[in-house]
Amino acid sequence: MTQATTLQNQVTSTFKSLKCKECGEEYELKAAHVCEFCFGPLEVTYDYSTLSQTVTRESIQAGPHSIWRYRSFLPVATDTPIDVGTGMTPLLQAHRLARRLGIEQLYIKNDAVNMPTLSFKDRVVSVALTRARELGFSKVSCASTGNLANSTAAIAARAGLDCCVFIPADLEAGKVMGTLIYGPTVMAVQGNYDQVNRLCSEVANTHGWGFVNINLRPYYSEGSKTLAYEVAEQLGWQLPDHVVVPLASGSLFTKIYKGFQEFAQVGLVDEKPVRFSGAQADGCSPIAQAYRENRDFITPVKPNTIAKSIAIGNPADGVYATEIARKTNGTIESVSDAEIIEGIKLLAETEGIFTETAGGTTIAVLKKLVEAGNIARDERTVVYITGNGLKTQEAVQGYIGEPLTIEPKLDSFERALERSQVLERLEWQPVLV
Ligand SMILES: *Cc1c(COP(=O)(O)O)cnc(C)c1O
Ligand SMILES: [Zn+2]
């Protein structure tokens, strides 16, 4: 019994190599992200036959209550990864939002409450920094639109790694404070994210630091697969019919796809087509534009939207995202800043979840897809909410009403209550024609 348990809990490392997504050239498992021959992106490969023999639903469920229960599918060798409780966020059936939109089977995967910094980036950074430590880096860094800086700084602090992060200088106050508090060096670059990213590629070459989303990108991006694994496990080891996912670089989108495929390949779930739909903001929608125009290349744009966390004008995985949307019979849509604010409010008022601008974008796109008849009434749909609204408060400032200020007296309260009920009746008055 003891021996069986030990065996069951023993996790095998099955990651094999880095492989070019374009030409197939393979590389050893070092800190590298582009192919030396064709400049294609490198991706981690695994030994799936070993995985299908060693991993079971039970062995996963016997693991920790975090992303590390899926460790055999992640590119780290250590038995003691950096586990800050990341992952296993709630999957909620969204009855009220579904009814409001006119569909039946809607679920919210709520990474607005992911640990430790309240966005899905904690998943990718937990994996990247665990791998950075294995590869011998003592200084870690990132080029960030905000959430990644929060995660990198927090998890580096916890792991005792030196940290320097790069952000665009015009980020939301909550994102800046949510980085500074952990004590890293913060470089606020006077430029947009794409300029930050270019600068960071040079620093990675000249200083040899471990940039989670540059030279460690193949490891980092694998962390996003856990958002597929968890949804499959939380749906009772089944795949959904349709997912709606926000797109910045497009990496998350492609990795959720890879995650579902892997689970089917090793027999943890039954194979089944899943439709993949992506969400962008009009003010930065290079992937949606390429999709709309049926192009197989991305034309970079200059971002101008309140959805800063997903404002990447030159998205590295954009082409792969359009391919997945096409072949799964999904779509990629974009919405205006006004619709994003409405999306944030709609999710809060129907489901009690306060998401940031990226989540508002995703909800607004969901609404648009339902209205266009792109999501069937009975399709089991999962919407990925990737970040927390307390970090982007300025986005909704002025759109959410104000508290009723009263004197500490009963009659003052009664008068205010009366006024609020009048206001409510006015707001809900049916339009007469
Ligand atoms: C980074 C981020 C995304 C998407 O990231 P990809 O670059 O497409 O992997 C989505 N939502 C939030 C809140 C993010 O911070
Ligand atoms: Zn190549």
Give an overview of the whole structure.
This protein is α/β, with parallel strands linked by helices and 433 residues long. The chain has a domain at 91-118 and 223-396: Rossmann fold. Helix content is 40%, strand content 14%. The protein is built from 16 helices and 13 strands. A six-stranded mixed sheet has the order 4-5-13-10-11-12, sandwiched between helices. Strands 8-7-6-9 form a four-stranded parallel sheet. The protein has a three-stranded antiparallel sheet with strand order 2-1-3. It starts with a helix and ends in a 5-residue tail after the last helix. Mean pLDDT is 95; it is low at 1-9. Zinc ion is lined by residues 20, 22-23, 25, 35, 37-38, 40. Pyridoxal-5'-phosphate is lined by residues 119, 121, 147, 246-252, 309-310, 356, 358, 386-387.
- What share of the residues lie within helices? 25-40%
How much strand content do the residues show?
5-15%
**SSE arrangement, N to C:** HEEEHHEHEHEHEHEHEHHEHEHHEHHEH
Class by alpha and beta content? alpha/beta
Radius of gyration: 22 Å
Mean pLDDT: 95
Number of strands: 13
Small molecules held by this entry: pyridoxal-5'-phosphate, zinc ion
Q: Which sequence of strands runs across the widest sheet?
A: 4-5-13-10-11-12
- What's the CATH topology label of the domain at 91-118 and 223-396? Rossmann fold
Sketch the major β-sheet: 6 strands, mixed
Shape: globular
Number of helices: 16
Q: Which CATH first-tier class of the domain at 91-118 and 223-396 would you pick?
A: Alpha Beta
